[in-house]
Automatic annotation (TrEMBL):
Keyword Metal-binding: yes
Record-linked PANTHER family: FRUCTOSE-1-PHOSPHATE PHOSPHATASE (PTHR43481), GLYCEROL-1-PHOSPHATE PHOSPHOHYDROLASE 1-RELATED (PTHR43481:SF4)
Organism superkingdom: Bacteria
Protein name: Beta-phosphoglucomutase
Organism of origin: Moheibacter lacus
Ligand binding (substrate): 8-10, 24, 43-48, 51, 75, 113-117, 144
SUPFAM superfamilies, per database record: HAD-like
Cofactor detail note: Binds 2 magnesium ions per subunit.
Pfam families: Hydrolase (PF00702)
MF GO annotations: beta-phosphoglucomutase activity; magnesium ion binding; sugar-phosphatase activity
CDD domains: HAD_BPGM
Record's keyword terms, sorted: Isomerase, Magnesium, Metal-binding
Amino acid sequence: MINTYIFDLDGVIVDTAKYHYLAWKNLADELEIDFTKEHNELLKGVSRIRSLEIILDLGNKTISDADFDRFLHKKNEEYLSYIEKMNASEILPGVLNALDFIKKIEGKIVLGSASKNAKPILEKVGLLDYFDAIVDGNDVSKAKPDPEVFLIGAEKVKSNPVNCVVFEDAVAGIQAANSAGMLSIGIGEKEILKEADFVFSDFNQISNEFLEKLENN
Ligand code: G16
Ligand code: MG
């Protein structure tokens, strides 16, 4: 029986990918690296450090450690200026209803995100109080597809992985949920999230009845 609902942040609760893209794009322009929206797909669910490594690889560039740190900082400052302006209108369709229903049936609600900015984002959109536990980029040492982020989340609310479901938009996140022995629900396209136990285009497609009757076999 599922009693713990673990949410990824970017691409599941809010669409912050567009803000990551704007900030990475400006940095790539400065480095004279061609960086498109298609390239941005490679960065979804990936840590900040790994994201910059991927962008440098795309441009076949190497930079000094000092510049690497300076660029990471610069990108994050710009990203923070975008999330500063976020509000509840940016919560993705159906998410609020799902969170309210899970609260009603007394399910535990956990965040499992690669972002180090997860808490301020949840605060900005007014969702912080829904969460019984938050695991973010500050708490993990191994990135998705490693299951660490979700296993720590389950531990924080004293749940067994078999009683957890994970909502994820990234392939690496679905793989992490599967490796953790949790039920995996993809939010996005079936063709991309093939390894998920179920896939929905957004939370409006997930009924309350479905959420209540979830089982992990
Ligand atoms: C999110 C995004 C990634 C981003 C990562 C780190 O992960 O999908 O694109 O690189 O967080 O973000 P930050 O620079 O804020 O630490 P998730 O796991 O919420 O999808
Ligand atoms: Mg995501």
